[in-house]
Amino acid sequence: MLAEIITIGDEILIGQIVDTNSAFIAKELNKIGVSVFQITSVQDDNAHIVKALGEARERVDVVIVTGGLGPTKDDVTKNAFCDFFQDTLVQNVEVLAHIEHLFANYISTPISDINRQQAWVPSKAEVLHNANGTAPGMWMQSNGVAFISLPGVPFEMKNLIKHQVIPMIAERYERPYILHRTLVTYGLGESAIAERIASWEEDLPPFLKLAYLPNLGKVRLRLTAKGADKKMLDEAIEQASEKLYPLIGDILYGTENEETLEEVVARLFTQKQRTLATAESFTGGKIAQQLTSIPGASAYFKGSVVSYATEAKIELLGVSREVIQKHSVVSAEVAKMMAENARNLLKTHFAVATTGNAGPTKGDSDAEIGTTYIGIATPEGAFAEKFNMGNHRERIVQKAVHKALELLQKEIIKI
Amino acid sequence: MLAEIITIGDEILIGQIVDTNSAFIAKELNKIGVSVFQITSVQDDNAHIVKALGEARERVDVVIVTGGLGPTKDDVTKNAFCDFFQDTLVQNVEVLAHIEHLFANYISTPISDINRQQAWVPSKAEVLHNANGTAPGMWMQSNGVAFISLPGVPFEMKNLIKHQVIPMIAERYERPYILHRTLVTYGLGESAIAERIASWEEDLPPFLKLAYLPNLGKVRLRLTAKGADKKMLDEAIEQASEKLYPLIGDILYGTENEETLEEVVARLFTQKQRTLATAESFTGGKIAQQLTSIPGASAYFKGSVVSYATEAKIELLGVSREVIQKHSVVSAEVAKMMAENARNLLKTHFAVATTGNAGPTKGDSDAEIGTTYIGIATPEGAFAEKFNMGNHRERIVQKAVHKALELLQKEIIKI
Asked: Are B300 and B338 in a shared domain?
């Protein structure tokens, strides 16, 4: 059971936007046992789209197409579908009623003929209701291959995928199971790990695949099993993991599930009914932003003091000027005091603080670029740890945010 | 002059990562007049890669391949290149010396045979030095088409693109010019705009292309001109724009260049030597994070008070409890007071504040989900404006951050 995702839009091909739709769709398909064989991005061009549809038909069972369904002339997907399926557009009265309803209730511009034209769909298409927008989704068939066309606007597409496309595919196709297990290691490069586990890797059965995913100082080992017998796959992954653990026990950090690190932190703080504050220097609010990106953050997250300037650390956060002068603004002492003071100011159980230098210049301290201190304050006391995060600004901040959440997780899990 | 980007990696096809490399590469190619015809993502699979290379050879002049160059068994790009080019791997002594240098100086794990194998490259390949990593880039030719293989790690790939690939393509190929101009409109849907400018659009010369890009309540109109004569293209874009302005004068918001809104704000505050603080409620630090993502933010950005909880607004930011009780925590009065108090606490010229409800529940106020107040404090005084940002959590926050930066821009530009 293979799928191809075709994303349509010049804005992707000139690099004006990053295609985030494909990863979302791929993940959802994977959950129901559909493997994405290829992702193809093509221009808003009739001939190019028709060609891509034809090539995909040779490769896969289901083709999911996003984009090019807007009301304006640069959107040509529906015409390309008509050419490919030798079909013509007909007006769908239900879609028309939905468009008129949206315009009457939610859109300030008056409805026009161009908007009403969005109710025209290929006559052979099965229409998928787009609750969040005016462009309907469409399901068509050719030589036993399903072609599903969706709008490119992420929140319209996501709703259609979750509530229409996935249930329909699940109902209409027999699918294998695809199971993943990801083990997170820390402290050894991918090549060193590969040498260590070479004979274990050799012995893996053919339906088990291993991938090495290095990122932010960690190497994740992803085992993927694919087949019809879920119980057998579960057991095979379990057995392979059991044999792997003794080989990587010293570097094994944990297993990874669908949860992101910030989701784990959110879940633990909420479950354990503890509250959190952050005091951020060079991470500039990114820890707070990641935590508050998860619905329900108000249950445990009280706020943050983003003290970017040294003066803000002193005046807003009450870090002592003497401590800064004695130890430098990028120091364990300052990180610890930032965490303690944020915890007191915001009256929380826990606080995490960052101070460091992300470059490109050295700023208010003599610390090398990449030097990072993370302070943690808990009901039991406070401490700070030092890290070196390399010399690439964006990565330094990313790594520091990741490490701060990791240290928080380690503390909250003890409660 | 056409290019294809092929990204290799199972992690893309199972949706574990979003492919951000392609947008970066497409943008850089565009700047030197190379159009990306297609982007294709394929699995870490020899046969699939070879097939994709062959198909791309029929479509374009330059193929840029990323990923699959790691030292472990799941990385098969080099072998696929050997199959495709009927070549064999040979050891490159310069790459070997570079790998040994990196291990001796920057990598804590001892070097192993697997690492040294990364110095083996196809014998016909021209090697591109990867300053940031152990996997070299490669340039190969087949039937007059260039195939360039790069590592998938973004910061290694970006460095290779900027300092090697782009200069080499620029030197080796004659290229047309590709010019873009994007006009930003506000207040009218894309279909209404399309109707209004229909006859203007009809009259565009064939080398000028128009695209409608709706996002966050705005519609951007992108004009793209492509051809050999830069002066003529410049003039054609200018003339078309001049004819367009009178048709959309009432909704025209500005022209867009490569600068993002946060970059514009950063530039204006730095140029005008004014300082800024933020007080963020439901935006949770995202404004601060976006501003500090730009190097040099310390020149004007002092810090932020992220007062997510109502208590934090009172205790940390000094918003009056009476005002909150009288007007609700989501109100113009609170937004204004948050901005004023942040400005005073952080001793800055300007401050921007947000309070609102991003859902999914109503939280500490009765405000409808999507209700947003943005407060601005300047040396001249303070004010707040009300907005409704829809009902989709992620988009509400995005729109609020965007609007906050927009209001700031409007104020700082007056100085």
From this structure: yes
